[in-house]
Automatic annotation (TrEMBL):
Segments crossing the lipid bilayer: none
Gene Ontology cellular-component annotations: extracellular space
Name of protein: Interferon a3-like
Membership in a protein family: Belongs to the alpha/beta interferon family.
UniProt organism field: Salmo trutta
GO biological process, one term: immune response
Underlying gene: LOC115170963
Main location: secreted
Lineage of the species this protein comes from: Eukaryota, Metazoa, Chordata, Craniata, Vertebrata
Signal peptide extent: 1-20
Amino acid sequence: MQSWTCICLIICSMQSVCHCCDWIRHHYGHLSSEYLSLLDQMGGDITKQNAPVFFPTSLYRHIDDAEFEDKVRFLKDTIYQIINLFDGNMKSVTWDKKNLDDFLNILERQLENLNSCVSPAMKPERRLKRYFKKLNKNVLRKMVSLVSYGNVFNTCNQMNIN
């Protein structure tokens, strides 16, 4: 009887992973296109001005060579950090409220689905967390404007699963 229970649990676990892979393959790209379009509409002309916080290019290059689950975890952590950036920092930004709500809803939907794809035991990448903390402290808290959100746009553009 115990062996059947184990087999049942294994099959259920495999279905969850397969569902996750299917979701990424069939829905992630579409939702990413939607939120990038919304961010583009909200931002209008995104600045090319460099921020006092450098984009962690090496971190994104490093994740290109990572295992699939590590890439998914990295995406999940990045989306989580972006949602946190937008939470409560929008007082002086004049974006269309509906577009902003749609943007955040899409990110939250992606986060929810990506959460089901990875084991919760792993801690977020420290360098990624540090980047967003610096971005929030040194840029967004000081210059809450469309200019500072250009950095968020650049981060969103980097989020792809190969």
